[in-house]
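Thread: Modeling a multi-component assembly for a lab meeting

Hi all, long-time lurker, first post. My supervisor asked me to bring a structural picture of a complex we are working on to next week's group meeting, and I have zero experience with this. I have the sequence lines for every component (227 residues in total). Could someone generate the structure of the whole assembly? Inputs are pasted exactly as I received them:
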Amino acid sequence: QLQLQESGPGLVNPSETLSLTCTVSGVSITSSGHYWVWIRQPPGKGLEWIASIHYHGTVYYNPSLKSRLSRLIDTSKNQVSLNLTSVTAADTAIYYCATRVGGVAEALEDWGQGTLVLVSS
Amino acid sequence: SSVLTQPPAVSVAPGETARITCGGDNLGTYSVHWYQQTPGRAPLLVVHDDSDRPSGIPERFSGSNSGNTATLTISRVEAGDEADYYCQAWTGRSDHFGGGTKLTVL
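Re: Modeling a multi-component assembly
Sure thing. I ran the full set together rather than chain by chain. Output:
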């Protein structure tokens, strides 16, 4: 059974870099059929798509965040990571990792439980 | 503001039918997916590809998509259906979520 587990720092200082990791179990992140997707949700607000990442190199970023995003894949740990630079209070949110199978337009079938990140000094 | 537009709130009595809309330019040309989110939980897929249900989702949940509007329909609403509902679609190079609709069961 596919499971996703997000991890993050909990608290990040403004202007610093936020590093998030999604640890995947039940399927290899190198699977050609899977996209690994990051979504966030500010407290009390709606969902915002951040990025869709395919192991073989295809990456789509939210245009409003693209200049601050980079991704990392660690096949030895079966992890997909995301870095968000120059964070501000507006980046405070629950960050979710999810997956879609078959193509970039498919539904997000599986989600992690999310990790809360607070940007504050 | 969201590319996909949802009403902020919908209220319905138990046993009645709830309809939650999602609007967007030419939305009918894209596949729309719907998610249910209860407080403190991750979203749960309830309808995919406009009108298909994942396994385990009751038949009471259905969807349609045509023109500029997609609709999630929940028949015979139960108290446990009270939640936030989000539509989502990939429109070329970006994913988009609607702003969410809070369904209240009276």
